[in-house]
Design goal:
mainly beta, Glucose Oxidase, domain 1, 7-stranded mixed β-barrel, 3-stranded mixed sheet, Cyclase family protein, KFase/CYL, arylformamidase activity
């Protein structure tokens, strides 16, 4: 099914029958992707004394409780409320869901004991392109990202200068295949988060950061329409399901 989207003065065509899902599934398993020193997610049937809410145990329904942390257990989208004293809800601040996005692949650079994504790399990847969103895939890119246990591993992160550049470029939605845009242990400076959301000036309430995506290798770099689907949680962050549609030239 071919759809036409009006973007500024340009008409963009996409094939709605060919979605590219770049989210990670959440599973009740120790092999579920994990970060931030928390236990694995749990999906368990509700219980009431001897009654267990599964069909296999004699109930007429399957009725599960789910325990997880959106920041630690998979693809999630967050707003500035993640780092502010004042409460801001992603559900109240993300109002539209289709955006023009650029998928870029970046090889992190060595900086001391760290691997980082620099302003120079972002400048090279985006050039003069005008986009609402950027989708950053880091290499090496293997399916091991779907089960990696990131706690205490000092993963790659975004330099503050790169986040500032994205803000200055007008990027509203930053998607990345890492547990955070910031260094795992940074004494709570959160330099990239603060820079992207402009916490020293007018807050970018409509800007979002989506972490823990997974962009398969068959998804080529280039121009896409992004459908950023979120669960309607009144929270700073929510599980999300970003979908890409290749632009038909």
């Amino acid at each position: 099914m071919i759809a036409t989207i009006q973007y500024n003065s340009r008409k963009i065509k996409i094939d709605l029958s060919k979605p590219l899902d770049i989210s990670m599934p959440l599973r009740a398993s120790k092999d579920n992707v994990n970060a931030w020193y928390v236990d694995a997610p749990k999906i368990e049937p509700a219980k009431d004394r001897d009654w267990i809410a599964t069909v296999k145990d004699g109930a007429c329904i399957n009725f599960n409780n789910i325990q997880f942390n959106p920041h630690a257990h998979g693809t999630h989208t967050e707003c500035v409320g993640h780092i502010t004293e004042e409460i801001h809800s992603i559900n109240k601040n993300l109002k539209t869901f289709f955006f023009l996005a650029e998928v870029v692949t970046v090889a992190p650079e060595k900086l001391g004991e760290d691997f980082v994504i620099s302003k120079k790399q972002i400048q090279f990847a985006l050039g003069n392109k005008k986009r609402d969103a950027i989708v950053i895939r880091t290499i090496p890119n293997t399916s091991e990202k779907l089960i990696r246990q990131y706690s205490n591993t000092n993963p790659t992160y975004l330099l503050e200068e790169a986040a500032i550049h994205l803000k200055q470029k007008g990027i509203k939605h930053l998607l990345i295949d890492l547990p955070s845009v910031d260094k795992e242990k940074d004494e709570c400076q959160l330099l990239a988060h603060n820079a992207f959301w402009n916490t020293k000036g007018k807050l970018r309430l409509d800007a979002t950061i989506t972490e823990f995506i997974y962009v398969p290798n068959h998804v080529e770099d280039g121009l896409y329409v992004l459908n950023l689907q979120i669960a309607p949680f009144e929270n700073d962050a929510t599980p999300s399901k970003p979908i890409l549609y290749k632009v038909i030239e």
